Amino acid sequence: MTARERVACPDCSLQQALPAIADHEVARCRRCHRLLRVPEAQSRASFALVLAALLLWIPGCLAPLLTVSAGGASRSTNLIGCAIRLWGTGYPPLCLLVAVLMIAIPSAFMLLTLAQMLPGISRSSLRGCRALAHHLRPWLMTEVFVVGGCVAFSRIQAVATVSVDVGGWCLAGAAALLLGSLALRGDLPAEPDLAPHPDAPVLRRRSLRLTTLLVIAGLLLYIPANVLPVLQTERYGSIENNTILSGVLELVHYDLWPLAVIVFLASVVVPLAKLFGLAWLLWQTRQRSPRLLRHRTRAYRLIDTIGRWSNIDVFTISILGALVQFGVLTRVRPEPGAMAFAGVVLITMFAAQSFDPRAMWQAAAPEPQP
């Protein structure tokens, strides 16, 4: 075996030989089943989908997404304008959130992914592009924003007339292509053939402490995020405050059951499940438990994957706050609960990213005899 054919699984640290694979095969870790390699043809197809997504992404950012009409006036905005309007109407945190998660990160991810296919790229540059794209991938939320747009579209219909513009369709197409690209490549590690760093055990112990602190912070912030109003709607002088649960009930009232279920799961169930799931993983690791290691590793992967869907409500509120501004006729503004909920989402995502699943396997390993 050559040094390049030996791999250390990024989820359980098992060192093993990475075999050559056929076009219909994938290589997974023999202990925890982590995906380590996909066929070359599948990788090329993934890159092609990213290129197509980028071509749709540009008009998706620049062309109008939605047009809202009320009382003889109309408002429309593109993705960039959505962030700018949120800043101009006094919501800087939501502005920064939309700008980073929906403009900066998807653009950087696609460019870094396509840069890996450039002819003559050096090995160090290739590894750098792979590593950066790998770190950005958990924060890629284009399809989450599209679902949030669908929820916003449904809620706007209750107070105004709304239509989807060219930018909205382009953004939806780009999100679908990116999702297809990620499905082809799976959760491939940036460098699966690198052995663990000699300081890895110390770093993993530090990651456990950091994850514990983030989980506690997320649990404390979860209460105001669900109790405080997240959205205020003013229509003809009548003011209505909505919490997350009342927003779900509003969707049910308008017979939008699928969207109501999606929002309830993403905004109520998923954050709580992530926090308690991470707490369970931390407890089992500190107890040095050898039980259900493979299942716990799979549970961590699920926690890490579903966490970004909690941003549906955040994106919905951002779109409503940017578009539904018609003075005394109809006006929507975020409330403190929206900031608290955005904090919960970000904290749980950072908590999942800080947790190192290899710590579970290391803690359960028998201690060496003197």
List keywords for this structure.
single chain, 370 residues, mainly alpha, 3-stranded antiparallel sheet, 13 helices, globular
Outline:
By secondary structure, the protein is mainly α.
Explained architecture:
- The structure is a single chain.
- This protein is 61% helix and 11% strand.
- A 3-stranded antiparallel β-sheet has the order 6-5-7. A 3-stranded antiparallel β-sheet has the order 9-8-10.
- The protein has helices at residues 40-62, 79-88, 92-115, 123-136, 142-156, 166-185, 200-227, 244-253, 257-286, 293-306, 312-323, 336-354, 358-364, and strands at 6-8, 15-17, 27-28, 35-37, 66-70, 73-77, 161-164, 231-235, 238-242, 330-334.
- Helix 2 (79-88) packs across helix 11, helix 7 packs antiparallel against helix 9 and helix 9 (257-286) packs across helix 10 (293-306).
- The chain has 370 residues and is mainly α.
- Strand 8 (231-235) and strand 9 (238-242) form a beta hairpin.
- The chain has 13 helices and 10 strands.
- The model has no long low-confidence stretch (mean pLDDT 84).
- The protein has one domain.
Could you give a short account of the major beta sheet? 3 strands, antiparallel
**How many domains in all?**
1
* Cα end-to-end separation: 31 Å
The percent range for strand residues is 5-15%
Low-confidence stretches: none
| Structural classification | mainly alpha
Helices and strands, in order, run as EEEEHEEHHHHEHHEEHHHHEHH
